[in-house]
Every structure is written in C-alpha cells, then in structure tokens.
Amino acid sequence: MPETFDQDPLYSLAHLTLINCTPAELVYIAARAGYDAVSPRFITMNVPGEFERSPLDPAQIQALETAIDTTGLQVLDIELARITEDCDPRDFESAFELGARLNAKHMIMSAWTKRRDDRNFILDTYAETCDLAAPYGLTIDLEFPSFSRLRTLDETLDIVRAADRPNGGILVDTLYLHLSRVDLGELLHVPQEWLHFLHISDCLPGIADTREGMIQLARDARLYPGEGWIDFAGIIERCPPMNYSIELPNQARVAELGFEEHARRCLAHAKRTFGEARSKRRSVTQQAA
C-alpha cells in the first residue's frame, strides 16, 4: 500500500512526545502548534507518566472525536500493538475499529518477547495481525526499537518479507537507526511499498552501553532535529516520499516549556532541519519505464 504524494508531507505529533496527555488533549495541542495530524496511542504500555484513562473508554473516544472534528486534524497512525508471549492479535481489534473510524492509515507494532528462538511465533503473530487489520484499511508497520526483541532492520525485514502481506510495512525511527548502527545505505534494500511514514527525533553521537540507558534516552531524552548527530537529509534521500511523525519525548523540555511550546519547537526544528531534503529514490513507475 504505497503512499502517493503530490504535495508536501504531513507532520504528525506522536503521542509519546506528550505521553501525559489524553488523545483529545494531544489533538488540541497539535492543532495550536501547527501540526497536520496526530499519532495517538490507543493501546497503552503502562510506562511511567502515561495518561491514566483508557483511550478506548467511551468518554475518551467521544472527546477525541470532538477534538478531531473541531480542529480538522488527521489521524496518521495509531499505536501500539505489542507482540508478547501471551499476545492474542484479536485483542487489537477494538483499536483497529477506532482507527478506521478516525481514518487512520497505519498501526505500529513491535516485538517484546524475551526468547531469541521464537521467530516463527513473531512471524505468525505479525501475519495474523496484518490479516485482522486489513478489513479496517490499516497497514501494520513493524518497528525495531533497539532494546526490543527485533533490534535491527534486517531482523524486521525478515519478518515482514516472510509474512508477505499486502498491508505489511516497516517503521523507520531515526533514533533507532542510530542506536542499532544501521548504515543508511541499507534503507535502499527496503521495498518502497513497505515504508509509509517516518518517526523523527535526534540524539547525540554516543550510544548507551546498556539497555536501560537506551530506554531512558528513547522515552525521556530525545533531542530536537538539528541538535544532535542524525543525518536527516541522508535518511530522507534514501526513503520514498513519506509523512513524518515526530516522536520526541523529553521530560526536561516539557517541564521547562510546557506541552504546547515543546510540541511547537519539535515541529519548527524539524521543518528547519529538513529544509529542501527530498527523496532521491526512483519510484516503482520510474523503475519500470
């Protein structure tokens, strides 16, 4: 399900950036800060600071729908379907249904099992999730957090390729490209139709030595684009045209600036840093010509 782009990419505010906010609050803040879309979390992870009310509570859904109708923002993607040892993909269907009601296009998935010999289980779970999500018009974009079960682009490619589902996809997060030491040239090996949107944040050049250090950085200390080390132009040039979801949690910045100003600076830094960077990959149509 490749995206088609005849205009500038959308900029979406990912929920982890302001994880304390409810989905409705996220929408209003994103609208005031100048975003085009939001990427709300409909399946919680129970991480520190995460909003307490279930996003699938009827009152929360009504508030979210009102916020979207009021602001006119789009919903780019939803999250987070986690593959765990006791995972049942059918449990994700309520999130799929809500995502479809809000015209979301993508669902993020990642694997958090503890064994290293469970490839077939991860593959079967991912494939089943794709099948369940297809009637709702959702792609399932598999991510590779550097401290999760699938830690590399190659491992993630293996699962999506083996599943061979038309709504399969891979989510590239600029932070995890850095932490997993992915050579940017490897992005050219990912089929264009599997790349739907990009997670955006920056970081300093060093890589944490421990899993705990990576988690702390990923969930609490990401930097604005342009403040760190990441080669955004190089990433954008090697990917097909995509929308951008800014996932940039930084509790120190939120404490200093407040939710809205932090969100506004995330967007301003991204637009300034990306500048005129554009995809240099040939489209499937161009390759066939």
**What percentage of the residues does DSSP assign to strands (E)?**
5-15%
What structural class do the secondary elements suggest?
alpha/beta
Shape: globular
Spatially, the strands of the biggest sheet line up as 3-2-1-9-8-7-6-5-4
Number of domains: 1
The helix-strand sequence is: EHEHEEHEHEHEHEHHEHHH
From the 3D structure, determine the CATH topology. TIM Barrel
Helix content: 25-40%
Q: Please give the count of helices.
A: 11
C-alpha end-to-end distance: 20 Å
Q: Any low-confidence stretches, pLDDT <50, length ≥5?
A: 284-289
Number of strands: 9
User: What is the CATH architecture descriptor?
Assistant: Alpha-Beta Barrel
The CATH class designation is: Alpha Beta
CATH-defined superfamily: Divalent-metal-dependent TIM barrel enzymes
Give the rounded overall mean pLDDT: 94
Rounded to the nearest angstrom, the radius of gyration is 18 Å
| Biggest sheet character | 9 strands, parallel
Keywords: Isomerase
GO molecular function: isomerase activity
Pfam family, one: AP_endonuc_2
InterPro entries: IolE/XylAMocC-like, Xyl_isomerase-like_sf, Xyl_isomerase-like_TIM-brl
How does this structure look, described?
- The protein is α/β, with parallel strands linked by helices and 289 residues long.
- It has helices at 23-33, 58-71, 93-101, 119-133, 153-163, 174-179, 211-220, 232-238, 251-257, 259-274, 284-288; strands at 11-14, 37-39, 74-75, 77-83, 106-111, 139-143, 168-173, 197-200, 243-246.
- Helix 3 (93-101) links the parallel strand 4 and strand 5.
- Helix 1 crosses helix 10 (259-274), helix 4 (119-133) crosses helix 5 and helix 9 (251-257) crosses helix 10.
- The protein is globular.
- The relative contact order is 0.15.
